[in-house]
Amino acid sequence: MKALEDTRVARSSGSQVVERVALLMRLVAAGRRSGLRLADLHRAAGLERPTAHRLLQALVAERLLRQEGGSRRYFLGPAMYEMGLAASPQLALRDIVHPHLERIAEISGDTVFLTERSGLDGVCTDRTEGNAPIKAYVLDVGKRRPLVVGGGATAILSAMDDIELDRVCRANLERATKRFPRYSEAVLRRSLARARTRGYVLSKVLELPDVRTVAMAIRAPGGQPVAAISVSSVATRIDEERAAVIAALLRTAVDAIEAALVDRQAQAAPATPQSLEGTGAAGGRQPKNSGR
User: Fold this and answer.
1) Same domain for 166 and 141?
2) What predicted TM-score, i.e. pTM, was given to this entire model?
């Protein structure tokens, strides 16, 4: 019995280490532009300083993180990049969306973002900057936030059915309120109602009230929302009239992206007996037996 109990304890301890390492990696990824200090990381992760330091140094030794000599800040390491390349699907959503982000940024002059759903979170996976003199750096690529915060996340929520929407809001309430003191589910619900009426999100950025965002959801072939494109700029550049113009650009892009996703699914679908019926080994159609 003691041996069995020791095994359970060991497994629990091992799982805890993995969870802590994963949390630290996500925190560093979220702060990729400026890096994070040990003090930032141990507080955000809820770890004792020596424990966080030990884990971070082990990750540096494995090249999963790197530590800048002068500032002592932590950044993602080269091994993360290498593994990311290996883990990438043959054609990621970002590959399909990126040309559309570039086109919208070129036409609008504003900063354009791709946010993808990851469970209860939204993750910024791409960003393209326009030529407007004032930039709205709302999100860094890799930034992860609860899926109730941000214009892109709101667009994704607006395309969900009410059961899933309620589940996501309920699951995120505590941590969203804790991390974002300005967060209000009542305000979010009003924004969702307006988005469902007009077909796109137009809202203020939670952390930056002087910045506005226009966003629209991207649906997978099955109809479920998986991502969103958003355009952000200072509020003076996005009034109701210009928001409608930007929304038209988003609509064109989203229609093309969703069509590409349908095509990709069709190409990836395995052959069925029906689809192969009457087809020869070389791909040509066999002539019907004439009975002669």
Assistant:
1) yes
2) 0.67
Number of compact structural domains in the chain: 2
Residue 56 in contact with residue 220, Cβ under 8 Å?
A: no
Output the domain CATH number for residue 237.
Answer: 3.30.450.40
* CA-wise closest residue to 202 among 176, 182, 231, 224: 231
The stretches of 151-227 forming alpha helices (DSSP H) are 151-158, 162-179, 185-198
Q: 68-113: per-residue pLDDT in tens?
A: 888 899 988 888 767 765 555 545 889 999 999 999 999 999 999 9
How far the first Cα of the chain sits from its last, in Å, is 78
The token duo for 274 is 């029906």
Q: What is the DSSP string of 237-279?
A: G--HHHHHHHHHHHHHHHHHHHHHHHHHHHHHSPP-HHHHTTB
SS3 25: helix
